[in-house]
Each structure stands twice: as C-alpha cells, then as structure tokens.
C-alpha cells in the first residue's frame, strides 16, 4: 500500500510504501475486541468496596428475647436484613486484570493498524514539529490537514514544543511509538504516523 507523505503545513513531501504484513491484513474484530477488553480491564482501579456484617459499627446485643414477642427470631442488628447492616455479596477490592498472550496483543495491534489503513484513516507526516511550540499555529496546521480528532504517533522521542502545543488542543493525542496501542487507535478518527514511527513499527514487527 502506497501513501503520500505530507508536511505539518499540508505540503506534499513524497510517498512511501507501507508493509502489507502490518497494514495490509484483513482486520479480525475478535482479536481487536479481546485486546481492547484487556486494556480497559487492566486500567480499572478495582477500589470499589462495601462493608460486610463484621465491619459494621453497631451493637451486637440481641434485639429482643428469642421467644414470647410474637416476632421473628433476630439477633444482631449488623445483619444484611436491616437498614444500616452489612451487605451480602457486594463488591470487594480486587484487580480486574486478566491475561492476554504477548503474541495476541502484537497481532491485534497489526489488525488495528490494518483496519485504520483500510478505512483511509492513516496520514503520514515527514516529522512532528511546530515552530516556537505555538498552539495557535499547530491548530491552524491541523485544520489544513483536516485533523479534528486524531492520534499522532512520533518516534521514540517527541519534540517538546510539539507535545506542549498539541496537549492544549481537544481530541488530539500525541504518543511516542512505544506507547502505541489498540484502544487509542480505535478511539480517534485519524491515525497520524511520522516517518520515524513507521520505521520503528517495521523494525518491531520484522
């Protein structure tokens, strides 16, 4: 697959051939779904918790006599039968993380990249940089490129001025190539890759 390379100002800067092993696969929704589910489960805090009857600060004295009242037999007020008592089978602090093989994660990433390529949602930049690190200038350049909802992937190091300018623009995410992931690719409309990011991806999946 051949794509045109553009500059941040929207000018043509040649073309490049994308690897079919990374961008030319037939997307498998099942693999992509497994990886997204794994990512979202991994980032859950899991700090939700309720108190059981042993943790309720209330007297343990028997409410009333066992017999002779005409009422049901009750003991502690801490039980789950009463308002303010412990809760049965409520959530406890735990990790929601589950395993996913590294090869499956790598394959899902390639399928996500292929899905974005098939939809025409990939833009290739020669480099990600902006003069003086000005947000106004970068936003104008993004408008020329038609980027209002995009994930930008640069090489191992992101230019400080570009990163600082882009973080003030809504719906624009900037990541180094080692941070590329399936969920962020799918949640943004466009995927912008620099030449440095492409070289790193091809070296990674060689």
Task: Record keyword descriptors for this entry.
about 210 residues, alpha/beta, Ribosomal Protein L4, Chain: A, 2 domains, six-stranded mixed β-sheet, 7 helices
Task: Provide the fold topology.
Elements: E1 2-6, E2 12-17, H1 20-23, H2 29-42, H3 102-118, E3 122-125, H4 135-145, E4 150-154, H5 160-166, E5 172-176, H6 182-187, E6 190-194, H7 195-204
Parallel strand pairs: 1-3, 3-6, 4-5, 4-6
Antiparallel strand pairs: 1-2
Helix pairs in contact: 2-3, 4-5
Description:
- With 206 residues, the protein is an alpha/beta fold.
- The protein folds into 2 domains: 2-45 and 98-204, Ribosomal Protein L4, Chain: A; 50-90, no CATH class.
- It has helices spanning 20-23, 29-42, 102-118, 135-145, 160-166, 182-187, 195-204; strands at residues 2-6, 12-17, 122-125, 150-154, 172-176, 190-194.
CATH top level label of the largest domain: Alpha Beta
How far do the termini sit from each other? 17 Å
* Count of domains: 2
Radius of gyration: 27 Å
The total of helices stands at 7
Corresponding CATH architecture of the largest domain: 3-Layer(aba) Sandwich
């Amino acid at each position: 697959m051949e794509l045109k390379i553009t500059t941040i100002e929207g000018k043509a800067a040649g073309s490049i051939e994308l690897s079919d092993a990374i961008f030319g696969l037939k997307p498998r929704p099942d693999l992509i779904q497994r990886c997204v589910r794994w990512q979202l489960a991994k980032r859950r805090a899991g700090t939700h918790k309720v108190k059981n009857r042993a943790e309720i600060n209330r007297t343990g004295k028997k409410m009333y006599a066992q017999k002779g009242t005409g009422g049901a037999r009750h003991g502690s007020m801490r039980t789950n039968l009463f308002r303010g008592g412990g809760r049965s089978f409520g959530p406890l602090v735990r990790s929601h993380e589950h395993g996913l093989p590294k090869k499956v994660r790598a394959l899902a990433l390639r399928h996500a990249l292929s899905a974005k390529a098939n939809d025409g949602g990939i833009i290739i930049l020669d480099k990600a940089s902006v003069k003086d690190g000005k947000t106004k200038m970068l936003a104008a350049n993004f408008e020329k490129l038609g980027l209002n909802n995009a994930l930008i992937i640069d090489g191992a190091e992101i230019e400080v001025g570009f990163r600082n300018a882009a973080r003030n623009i809504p719906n624009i995410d900037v990541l180094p190539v080692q941070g590329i992931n399936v969920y962020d690719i799918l949640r943004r409309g466009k995927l912008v890759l620099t030449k440095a990011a492409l070289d790193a991806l091809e070296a990674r999946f060689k």
